[in-house]
Amino acid sequence: MPERSTASWNAMISGYIDSGKIELARSFFEAMDQKNSVSYIVLISGYSKCGDVESAEELFGQLRRKDRLVYNAMIACYAQNSRAKEALRLFNEMLRLDLLPDGMTLASAISACSQLGDLKFGSWIESFIRGTGIQMDDYLATSLIDLYAKCGSIDKAYNLFHGLIKKDLVAYTAMILGCGINGRANDAIELFDEMMNAEINPNIVTITGILTAYSHIGMVEEAYRCFISLQKYGLSPSVDHYAIVVDVLSRAGRLEEAHGLIKGMSNQPHAGVWGALLLGCSLHNNLELGEIAAAHCIELEPDSSGYRSLLANIYASSGRWDDAERLRKDNRLTLSVASDSFSRLCFEIWHKLLDLGYESRYPYSNDSFPIYTEDIDAGPDASPSTAMLSEVAQLLKITIVGGSIPERSGDKLYKICRVFDTDGKPKAKHKKFSELLSCSIMADKSFFIMSFYTKSAANGPN
User: Fold this and answer.
1) Where are the PPR repeats (predicted)?
2) Does the N-terminal or the C-terminal CB of the chain have fewer CB atoms within 10 Å?
3) Are residues 418 and 428 in contact, defined by beta-carbon separation less than 8 angstroms?
4) 262: domain CATH number?
């Protein structure tokens, strides 16, 4: 070329980035005599694609005068590379500089809120969009759908979803996954069927959502058929897909099938896969497979005490009291919970209970169960979850129970398990003992408080 314009240099840089040659793109960038903001934007976006956030930050810092498009590129880089806090920090900086964001800026900021589960900030962004007259196109609406669905605001997500001009795979997937993980299984199944009728093929995340929905309501055959159908769509099952199917098979008592599925995995199963089998063995008192599953769980996650607690339950139900007691002594966790079934908030509460010194009395006699009631001191430095637990326990006079109580022949175990929202109002109630370990309908800001009692023909309630 007789004369190389800045635009032609930028085109070459973009071409090398599209070909995956980021080093050549950088060398062309450095060779430019006159760089403009587009030159920086193109290369920042290139570094974003290959995950090199530090190089993108370096370029961003070199620019003295940054316009909205430059901020857009850097905010998107942070959001696309799981640096959500940095994305929102830069978004706030942009607002302080009176740079009006556009749809691209806002979509990246909403994505960051979704990663952090920051429903409050995300809702503010929606209000900002509507208040400033920015067009709520399908791209922005879908970003908000993803945020609301992941944060449990399914009704808000539905309102936006129904207003879409064109419902694409991303929108359906956000809704299906959101409904699946928030206990709206029937809604997730209905949306999946609607998507199939619209001839929109699912992706890996869509399958995760629908499998979760099938698992929640115990649709074993449907879950297995969906798992098998992955090949039809050219998809390979992830380890998490295996974990969900193993879970639904195990809880249905099809333990040998679940074990066979694990043995046939091409990828190395993580502890969640073996933990799902162990949970099923605990529910159905299968000692042989339970020991196998527990051995793998403990090998993969030696510091996790929940697996030992489940195995101790199996030993107790099988009459092997010495083995159960041995595990109890080595295991500080005495609350029988499954890690994949509870939100992080619940775990924080359970560990607070452990810090208060809850211990298990074992073995259990017909008239003695480890029931503990204790006020929790929510002082000025208490975490939000501890404060909520204290407030609700005092307000509702709830009995908190420690220990893992196995079902025994001759007695029937009754359970009251309530899910409370952060305002202290109950959201749901389950009565089956088997649901204690498998219940996973909780949102991030809900928690369990449980009480148990037994009833035998001879002795009556204990």
Assistant:
1) 5-35, 36-66, 67-101, 168-202, 203-237
2) N
3) yes
4) 1.25.40
- Give a yes or no: residue 308 inside a domain: yes
What pLDDT tens digit does each residue of the chain (462 aa) get? 456 788 888 888 888 888 888 898 898 888 888 888 889 999 999 999 999 999 999 999 999 899 999 999 999 999 999 999 999 999 999 999 999 999 999 999 999 999 999 999 999 999 999 999 898 999 999 999 999 998 989 999 999 999 999 999 999 999 999 998 888 999 999 999 999 999 999 999 999 999 999 998 889 999 999 999 998 899 999 999 999 999 999 999 999 999 999 999 988 999 999 999 999 999 999 999 999 999 999 999 887 777 888 888 898 888 888 888 888 776 644 333 333 333 343 444 444 444 444 333 323 222 222 222 333 344 455 444 444 444 444 443 333 333 333 333 333 333 333 444 444 444 444 333 333 333 333 333 333 444 333 333 333 333
Residue 334 corresponds to which amino acid?
T
DSSP string over 429-450: EE--TTHHHH-----TT-EEEE
Asked whether residue 355 falls in the same domain as residue 459, the answer is yes
Burial 42-67 (b: 16+ CB within 10 A, else e): bbbbbbbeeebbebbbebbeebeebe
What's the CA angle centered on 38, arms 32 and 41, to 5 degrees? 105
* Shared domain check, 402 and 301: no
Does residue 340 fall inside a structural domain? yes
**CA distance to 95, 284, 315, 317, 325, per residue, from 320 (Å):** 65, 16, 5, 8, 9
Among 135, 162, 181, identify where a domain stops.
135
Same domain, residue pair 313 and 349: no
CATH number (domain holding residue 60): 1.25.40.10
Backbone angles phi, psi at 456, to 5 degrees: -120, 155
Which region, left, alpha or beta, applies to residue 401 given φ > 0 means left and ψ of -120 to 50 means alpha? beta
CA distances from 2 to 8, 9, 33, 313 (A): 12, 13, 15, 81
327 and 372 assigned to the same domain: no
* Residue 73 CB neighbour total at 10 angstroms: 26
Q: Are residues 306 and 352 part of one domain? A: no
Residue 49 corresponds to which tokens in the numbers above? 């694609």
Distance of CA 102 to the CA centre of its chain: 29
* Statement to judge: residues 272 and 384 lie in one domain: no
What residues make up the domain containing 122? 1-135
pTM attached to this predicted model: 0.65
